[in-house]
Amino acid sequence: MRIILIITIFLSSCFGNNKSGQLNNDTSKMHLKGKVKKLHQTKYEAIRRNDSVVVGNKWDGLWNDMEKQIEFNEYGNKISEVTYNGDESIYDKYEYQYNSDEKIIKQLYYNVNGKLIPPSKFSYNNSNNNLIEREDFILGGQLYKFHSYKYDNQNNLIEYRLEYLKNSEDSKGNDDIYTKSDYRMTYKYDKKNNKEEIKRFGFGVYTSKDSKSKYKYDNNHNLIEQQYFDPKTDAPLSKEIFEYNTDNLVIKKTTYYNDVIRSQEMNKYDNYGNITEVLKNEDGEQQTIQYKYLYDDHHNWIKQQKTENNKPHSIIIRSIEYYE
Question: Strands (DSSP E) along 74-181, which ranges?
Answer without folding.
Answer: 78-84, 90-98, 104-110, 116-124, 131-137, 143-151, 157-164
